[in-house]
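Readers of this paper often ask what the protein records in our data store actually look like. The remainder of this section carries one protein's record, kept here as part of the documentation.

:::
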Amino acid sequence: MKNLPSYAVPLSVAVGILTAVAAIQGLFVDSTYANEARSFAVQGRAQDLVTLVWVLPLFGVAVYHLRRGSLAARLGWLGMLLYFAYTYLLAAMGLAYNHLFLLYVAIYGLSLALLIVGLTCVHLSDLPWRFSLRFQRRANAAFMFAVGVLLAGLWLTEIVRSLVAGVPPAMLSDTVTQSLVVQALDLGILVPLSIVAGVSLLRGTGLGYLLGGLVLTKAVTMGPALLSMAAFLSAAGFPVAPPMVIFAVLVTGAGGYFAWRFVSILR
C-alpha cells in the first residue's frame, strides 16, 4: 500500500467537523428543511441523526487507525468518504436551496477529492494476499450482486411503470426539485458499483477486494440510515413501503455481518 499524502488526515478531520455541523443544523435548526416536502424533511433529519451518532464515530476510528497504516482502516475510510460524497452531493442537488448549500458543497467536494487520492494510493496487486483462505469470497460477491439488483428493482419498478403509463412517478411528490435525484444517484453509482464489485470479487481480483470494501462500508452506513428514515416516517404518520423496510433490514443485517468478516479476516 502506498502511503497517503500528509494532508489526508487533516482534511479528513475537516470533513468530519463540517459534517457534524451540517448534521447538527439539520437536526436542530428548523429553517434547514423548511422548504422541503414534509416527508423529505423527516427523512433528512433521520439521516442526520445516523450520520451524527453512527457514521461520524466510525469515521473517527478509521481516521485514527489510518495513521497506523491499517488496511481495514484504509478501506473503511474510503467507504465512508463515499458515504459523505454521496450524501452531500444529494443534499446540494436534491434539497431546496438553504443556508447550508456551500457547506454541502464543501463536504462532498473534499470527500470526493480525498476518495480519489485514496484510491490512487492503493496497489491492487497487494490486496488479494491480505485475505486468508477462510474469506467467504463467493458469499460476499453474492451479497454485492443482491444489493445492486434489489436496489435497481426497488426504483425501476415504479419508474418503468410510470414511463409505460405516461405519467410522472409518485416519488416526485416528495421532492421540490421535481427530479429523481436519489434514484439517479443510486441507479448511476451504487447499483453499478455493487455489481462490478461482485463480479470482480468473484474473479478474485484486487479491484474486487477494493470495491468490496467500499460496498460493505456503504451498506453499514446506508442500511441504518434507511432504517432510521423508516422509523421517523412511521412516527410522523407517513406510510412506509414494506419493500424499503425489507431492503434496509437485509442491507443492515447482512452488510454488518459481511463487513465484520471482511475486516476480521484481513492479514
